[in-house]
Amino acid sequence: MTVGGVTTDDTTADGTTADGTTADGVVERRWAAFHRWGPYVLLAAGTVLSLSAADAIGTTDGERRLSGVLVVVAVVLQLAWGRAEDRRPGPTTESACYYAARWAVGFALTWTNPLFAFYAVIGYFGVGRQLPRHLVKPGLIATAVTLAGSQSGGLPPGDGLGWVLFGAILLVNALLVALFAHFGDLEEERVRTQAETIAELERTNAALQQVLDENAALHTQLLVQAREAGVADERRRLAAEIHDTLAQGLTGIIAQLQAVAGTTDPDLVRVHAGRATDLARESLGEARRSVHNLAPVALDGDGLPQALEKTVAEWGERTGARADCTVTGTAEPLHEEVAATLLRIAQEALSNASRHAAATRVGVTLSYIGDEVTLDIRDDGRGFDPRVRPARTGSGGFGLDGMRARAERIAGSLTVESEPGHGTAVSARVPLVRHD
User: In Å, how far from its chain's centre is CA 266?
Assistant: First the structure.
């Protein structure tokens, strides 16, 4: 607690309070110095003042000799306590006995000369270091009795009026002690609450740090999983690119060479051989492009509408089927990834129309509608039931799953409408992302 502006809580000599918290080092060192040397200084001050005013007060020779003996006792008591306190910091039984003995010496000295109250006032300081909690207030009241006697003119009072004055001064001192003791209790409670708050914050910070560590580990794990997923997605994309470029080119070359093998007409042989040569060159260009950025060769220098028209026309020449390409809306330069995706979907749909649907007529429509681009491919082939998942072909084609994956990769969608014997319609819708 705090009395007279002085901290008197249960603080040990090493600067640690009873609740385990450590006070400011500088302040604690100063208080430790005061508790060690303050009694000597106050005793010396009281002795000098008492000797100086002894004649004015009317001190007898017996009182002088008694006060001299008591001063020596006070010094010996303080020296003994200085060594004992280092070994066993209070509050202990020894510290309580020291406090009681020091109070008794101070009371006796004040009885012989009221000015020895300068020494007796030490009872207000360090009471929490020397007395158990339940004896703190009684100790303070005992010190107040000594000081009230000094303030009223010395003990014992000489007459009735002196006793009344002593009682009034004692009451005032007792009220002040109670008031400061109450303030001290409030301050002690505030310190205890603050210490508990700090401890709770430390626990919260520790828990938060644990959560952060767990989040860091989870983040690392997610990064690894994302990296693995990215690698797997890139492998699928590369496989689809190879299928849509090299595999289709080689398939077209094989078809032209088979046509050469099945005819003896020199003109047809030259036509099919020329087509095979063109396909080989185109496939070589696609292979080289794949090494760099996997962008379709048809888009090198042309926009999507022109590249799509050329692709449809070349497909019609190779297969002999009728192929029409239509562009609606205002054509805009698309981001290369969007353009490449739509062209690959068209190439895969045309390949499916010739290899699986036996189509004789195909219509391709590219539509620019607001903030979307739509690609529709319709054929008059044999069709199929979309609810029945077709078996994976031995040629390793990616088919509808590959086209749908391409569209979804750029936040688009792909729908298929088909019926056995009534052809197939494939529609891809993707966001219109303009070229940077």
Answer: 78
Separation between Cα atoms, residue 322 and residue 379, nearest integer Å:
10
Length of the chain counted residue by residue: 436
- Answer yes or no: are the C-beta atoms of 376 and 350 closer than 8 Å: no
Residues 403, 375: contact at Cβ < 8 Å?
A: no
Q: Of the candidates 121, 105, 31, 99, which has an alpha carbon nearest to the alpha carbon of residue 68?
A: 105
Report how far residue 166's alpha carbon sits from residue 148's, in angstroms, rounded to the nearest whole number: 6
Q: How far is CA 329 from each of CA 158, 196, 372, rounded to the nearest angstrom?
A: 121, 72, 11
Q: How far apart are CA 423 and CA 354, in angstroms?
A: 12
Q: Return all residues near 366 (Cβ < 8 A) that are at least 6 apart.
A: 304, 305, 308, 325, 326, 327, 328, 342, 373, 374, 375
Q: For residue 368, what are the β-bridge partners?
A: 373
Is residue 323 within 8 Å of 347, Cβ to Cβ?
A: no
For residues 113 and 64, give the distance between their C-alpha atoms in angstroms, rounded to a whole number. Answer: 9
- Whether the CA torsion 220, 226, 229, 234 is positive or negative: it is negative
Cα 81 to Cα 26, 36, 86, 130, 142: the distances in Å are 23, 9, 9, 11, 20
Its pTM stands at 0.41
Assigned token pair, 260: 């050469």
pLDDT values of the chain reduced to their tens digit, one per residue, 436 residues: 444 434 444 444 444 444 444 545 777 788 888 888 889 888 888 889 888 888 778 778 888 889 889 989 988 988 888 777 767 666 888 888 888 888 989 898 888 888 888 888 888 887 877 888 888 888 888 888 888 888 887 878 878 888 888 888 888 888 888 887 777 778 778 888 888 999 999 999 999 999 998 888 887 787 677 567 656 666 676 676 666 667 777 787 888 788 777 777 887 778 878 887 887 877 776 666 555 445 566 777 788 999 999 999 999 998 889 999 999 999 999 988 889 899 989 988 998 898 888 899 999 999 999 999 999 999 999 998 887 765 554 444 457 888 898 899 889 999 999 999 899 999 999 999 887 6
Strand-strand pairing, 372-379 and 413-418: unpaired
CB 171 within 8 A of CB 207: no
